[in-house]
Structures are given as C-alpha cells and as structure tokens.
Specification:
about 500 residues; mainly beta; Porin; 14-stranded antiparallel barrel; 4-stranded antiparallel beta sheet; 9 helices; about 10% helix; elongated
Length: about 500
C-alpha cells in the first residue's frame, strides 16, 4: 500500500499550511486578526459583510488575485528543524529502533498537525448601489493527530510494540515479546500477536486519541452590502455559499473506550487499496485509477464527496473609525459517497510491519505498517455514505483605525462544532497594521493558539503596495519566534505569501 495520503499532500506542499483562522489571506496571517480587516475576495470565509464596505471613493472597485497560499505546521514535541523536515522531506528521516521508541514517547498525547490553504484564483468587484461581490476557488488540506501511549507505540514500533505479547520471526519461530530483546532480533520480526483474552478493541486502543484529515476544494460566491448609512453609524451585512468537492477524508476519534469517529474516504486517483474483499462488498467503491500523473493527483483528482457550506456576517462602523464585526463561517457538511469506509468494531490481534521510520504519521506503506489486507492493523467495512460536518467557527472582532496609518484590532474565534480538523479551543488574537509610507505596510500581533495549550504566537508580516495601489504583494508568518528560538508549548512554523494581487 502506498503512503496513506502523504503521496498526494507532499506533492501539493512542495511547490508552495496554517489557516483555520486566516485561510489563505497573507495580509491577515501577519497580524492574526481578520474579522474587521479583510476586504474584497479575501473576506470570503472570514466576514462576507466586508464586501459591501468602502472607506472612500478611492477604494478599488475590482480586485484580482491568484495563488495566495498559507502553509502552517505545529508540534508540541518537535523543534523547528525537525518539524520542517517532517513535513517537507519525511523520506530523508530514517529512525533507528531506539529512535522510534523515543519518538513513540515524545508523540504520546502531544499534538501534531499541518494546514494548507491556497486560493487558486479570486475576484472581487463593487457595484454602486448594489454592493460587493466575490468569487474564488480554494483548496484546503488539514491534518491533526494526538495519540495515546499504546497507539503511539504501535505507529512507531509496529509489531515490536509492547502491546503484542508474541513475535513471529523470519525463520518461523514464535517468541515472547520482551523489552530486553536485542536490535538484531527486532529486525527479524515479521509479525506481532496477542492472545484473544488480552486483545483490545480499536476503541480501547485509541482511547483519547484523534487522527483526522481533510482535503476539499471550494468554489465560492459571496455578497455584501450596506443597509444603514449614517455619519456616526453604518451597518453592513453579507453572506456566502460554497460548493465543495471532497478529495480525501480521515476521521478517527476514540473516547471512553469507544470509537466515536471511524471514517475514511479517498479519491480513486490516489490509488489507495483497502483489500479486495472489502472492495467487492462495498457498493460505494468506484475503482482505483492507476498510472495517474503527479500533476493530476494535485490539480485534477476525482472527487469522492460533495457538499455545501454557508457564511453569514455583519459589520458595524461607529464614528467612521471604530469597527465591530461578527460572522459564522463554514456552516455545512460534505457527503462522502465514493471509496467510503468505516473502521470495524473489532479487536487488534496481530499486525505486520516494524512501524514508521519518520515523524510524519502519514508516511506509511505496507512494508512498515500494514493497514489493509492480511495481518493488517485495521479492519475496514465499506459503506454507501459518510456525512461529515464541517469545522464551523464563530468570529467576533473589533478594531480602530487612525487615518489609514495605524489599524489595531482584536479577534475571538470559537469552534461551533467538534469536528475533524476544527480548532480545539477558542483563539484570542490582538494584532495591528502600521503603514510606514505609501508603499510598505508591516503587521504584527500576539495570539493564543487554538490547538496547543499554553502556546502563544507572535505573527509578523510585510506587504508592498504600488504607488497607485494597483498591485500588492507580501509575505508573513503566524509565529516569528519559532524561527529564532524554541518557545515553550511547541513549535509553530508557518509561511504565507501572495505575489499577484491586482486592484483597479
């Protein structure tokens, strides 16, 4: 079996991830606040009411952008260098048996994840007396994991994990598993076993663990307009709708010894094989597509899910310089109807493979961790449909702008649903823009992370605007500190960029 979904994600990440709060908006990542700041197509998914807001007649009426990307990765245990290598070049990491045992310890109950948001194309335009309109095409790739001790040991140690009481060696001998076995013996292990009496169900094994990932493509439309227009107070409202095409889903969550999420669905373009017997019995199986080019895996993968999502928001302007905004975004669901499976409610009795040799949990093959077929770690059952609620959030923001030179604001972003890849706790952010001159704007801020308890981020960014404001580009990061020191609470490495944003 090929890499479970890394083969497709790595291809996407290489040329260009952290944007649950800021999406692909490079101008927002550098300050960490966005609810009352974003305009034109960048307001999609953040606050569509901003589309109807214009500060003066000099504001551009048409905006076009292409290939704006936001890449982010975080870990509660890896340092900056390890984290970058893990996401971008996992094939260059080859952990020894001792290092894999140490990795299992480090990853126990520790968060690890990455997000990738890219806007392929976005267009925003304003029509007098009607309001603002915006369309865009976006890709979202998200991954998050937190494993308990047993699950972490099985992932990294495979058939050598302490859970398995007996080991089958390459010469056919079966021996008891013991911590004193030599590395030479460990290398000759073919499979690990446990007796029926001591075998645990998947829910018991994964208790307290979460492994979730999404990849879907959005086709967005949003509209915003002004409904109250006064000198001291104005009110804007807006809404958005997006058509979703699902490409990949992993959603495994266990609590109190029970699986409460047990879903997976993969585009046939990725050629993920879950065993012939399951395929035949699965009415949603649509066939695997072999010999697919790398470009098609990224740009034109066959969808296996469809869905709709909605955004709604308001923005108030008080005394022309003070802004209040609130928005509910990503309200909806996806139905995964192709190559859809549930993890069976079974016991783990045996496994083949010595565990992964890198820190990236998605880089696995049948050789190091068998996930389907004979002596597989997991047993899958085909289903007709998986309905997945989207990671919806509620945003509240306030900001004050001083003569278009200094703009400071605060955001609170809260999860509305406990779904795959959604933030686990509210994000509180303070951020500001300062325009040095007509061409250069710098941004910075401070915010509390939505995944890592106690982790504080210090974003920063810089943007260049042409003298007539027809062209804008910039770069930013969600946490500048991680590039220089190892901060407490883990590493948070992110890059956001946009080099082709045009205004008229």
């Amino acid at each position: 079996m090929k890499a479970i979904i890394w083969s497709l994600m790595l291809l996407m990440l290489s040329p260009l991830l952290f944007g649950q709060a800021e999406r692909s908006v490079f101008t927002a990542v550098g300050r960490g606040v966005a609810t009352t700041f974003t305009t034109d197509y960048q307001a999609i998914g953040i606050n569509p009411a901003n589309l109807g807001f214009r500060k003066s007649f000099r504001d551009p009426k048409f905006t076009l952008g292409v290939l704006e990307a936001n890449i982010g990765m975080f870990s509660g245990t890896l340092n900056r260098r390890e984290l970058i290598r893990t996401v971008f070049t996992p094939q260059n990491i080859n952990l020894s048996q001792e290092e894999k045992a140490e990795a299992a310890r480090r990853f126990t109950n520790s968060p690890f994840g990455f997000n990738f948001d890219v806007m392929l194309i976005g267009v925003g335009f304003y029509v007098k007396k009607l309001g603002g309109f915006a369309i865009s095409v976006n890709d979202h790739v998200q991954f998050f994991s937190r494993l308990n001790q047993t699950a972490s040991e099985i992932v990294f140690l495979g058939n050598n994990a302490p859970y398995f009481r007996f080991l089958l060696l390459s010469n056919g001998r079966v021996i008891p598993n013991a911590p004193t076995l030599s590395p030479d013996v460990r290398e000759r292990v073919v499979a690990g076993f446990i007796d029926e009496q001591n075998a645990q169900t998947y829910g018991q094994l994964l208790d307290g663990s979460r492994l979730s990932s999404n990849w879907y493509r959005e086709f967005n439309f949003a509209y915003g307009t002004k409904i109250i227009d006064g000198y001291n107070f104005s009110l804007h409202v807006g809404g958005g709708i997006r058509l979703l095409r699902g490409l990949a889903l992993i959603n495994l969550v266990a609590q109190d010894g029970q699986l409460i999420r047990n879903n997976i669905s993969m585009s046939p373009t990725f050629n993920m094989n879950f065993g012939s017997s399951t395929q035949i019995a699965n009415p949603s199986f649509v066939g695997l597509q072999e010999n697919v080019s790398d470009f098609r895996k990224v740009a034109a993968a066959t969808p296996v899910g469809t869905g709709l999502a909605f955004d709604a928001g308001i923005q108030m302007t008080i005394k022309r310089n003070f802004y209040l905004g609130i928005a509910a975004t990503n309200i909806g669901s996806i139905n995964w109807t192709g190559n859809a499976y549930n993890l069976a409610d079974s016991k783990l009795r045996e496994i083949q493979g010595g565990g992964i040799s890198t820190y990236n949990l998605l880089v696995t093959s049948q050789n190091n961790l068998r996930l389907a077929g004979e002596r597989a770690a997991l047993e899958w059952q085909g289903v007709n449909n998986i309905n997945q609620q989207l990671p919806s959030v509620l945003r509240m923001g306030a900001s004050y702008e001083y003569f278009r030179t200094f703009h400071i604001g605060v955001d609170v972003v809260m999860p509305l649903r406990e779904t795959a890849t959604n933030i686990e706790r509210p994000i509180v952010a303070l951020g500001a823009d300062y325009r040095l001159n007509r061409w250069i704007k710098i941004s910075t801020g401070i915010n509390q992370d939505g995944y890592q308890t106690g982790k504080i981020n210090f974003p920063a960014g810089v943007a260049y605007t042409a003298s007539r404001r027809f062209f804008e580009m910039g770069v930013s990061t969600r946490d500048l500190v991680t590039f220089f020191i190892q901060p407490p609470g883990g590493s948070n490495v992110s890059f956001s960029m946009g080099f082709a944003r045009f205004k008229w």
